[in-house]
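Researcher: Sequence recovery benchmark, item below. Answer with residues only.
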């Protein structure tokens, strides 16, 4: 049991929090390349925070171009114990109107052009993704959203698409038929990589639009998305502050903290030393335990 160091992945404005003390900026290099941008750390009361702008300063990186491995590695390197992702999502359900906040419970991963694992030839692992988010952190994030004045719907299913184009109407209707409730371009492989890094992960989605499935509505335009994001920026910051204030004084151990104990399949004698070195930050705890 120890304290919390909460990593926040989202827009660069999230770290403009009143009362953020001991603010520092970190340029981090990783074996998987650089993260999206500098990481700002600080403290709100007893809670340490680390903020990473997912798309880089000025939103210069497309969803496909995101180095999610570098982002997760950098946050773990800086000591994060848990990760909260905040992102824009489109609605695939009539009752999830623009302005609503959601917490994600499940994912359907339709991405195809991204590196989705830290592991590979020479060191193989298969983590369980049956329950892809941390229920403890998701519950706390939902409560923080309500404390910030947001309407929050919990445990929705998120369809992760490749992008950067928005959906066709046919695609949008297909995703609805699968039971997806929101759609976005950044949730995967971020959630998978967090699980491989033994970091409990939760995702808060800010609904910015109805996706293209509605017959009587125009398709999604980025100007509409940005308008709703701008309106919700202060509320997202308030959510982060409320979450930091609501975290228990002691962080109880999570089963996700040690999930690689059941995931690494390569025998110790067959593991590639170069891969072991490359994965020291991500999997060093589990690899050293196997010696």
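Model:
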């Amino acid at each position: 049991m120890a304290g919390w160091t909460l990593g926040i992945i989202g827009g660069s404005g999230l770290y403009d929090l009143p009362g953020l003390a001991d603010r520092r900026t970190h340029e981090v290099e990783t074996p998987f390349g650089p993260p999206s941008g500098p990481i700002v750390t600080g403290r709100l009361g007893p809670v340490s925070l680390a903020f990473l702008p997912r798309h880089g300063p000025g939103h210069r990186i497309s969803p496909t171009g995101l180095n999610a491995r570098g982002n997760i590695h950098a946050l773990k390197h800086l000591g994060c114990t848990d990760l909260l992702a905040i992102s824009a999502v489109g609605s695939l359900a009539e009752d999830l109107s623009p302005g609503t906040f959601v917490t994600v419970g499940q994912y359907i991963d339709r991405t195809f052009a991204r590196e989705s694992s830290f592991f590979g030839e020479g060191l193989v692992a298969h983590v369980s993704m049956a329950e892809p988010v941390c229920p403890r952190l998701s519950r706390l994030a939902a409560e923080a959203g309500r404390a910030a004045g947001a309407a929050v719907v919990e445990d929705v299913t998120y369809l992760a698409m490749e992008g950067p184009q928005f959906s066709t109407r046919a695609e949008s209707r297909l995703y609805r038929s699968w039971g997806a409730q929101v759609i976005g371009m950044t949730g995967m492989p971020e959630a998978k990589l967090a699980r491989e890094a033994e970091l409990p992960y939760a995702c808060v989605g800010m609904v910015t639009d109805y996706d293209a499935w509605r017959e009587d509505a125009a398709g999604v335009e980025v100007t509409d998305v940005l308008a709703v994001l701008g309106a919700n920026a202060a509320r997202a910051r308030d959510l982060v502050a409320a979450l930091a204030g609501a975290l228990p004084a002691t962080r109880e151990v999570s089963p996700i903290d040690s999930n690689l104990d059941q995931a690494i399949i390569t025998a110790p004698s067959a593991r590639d030393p170069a891969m072991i070195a490359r994965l020291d930050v991500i999997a060093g705890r589990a690899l050293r335990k196997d010696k």
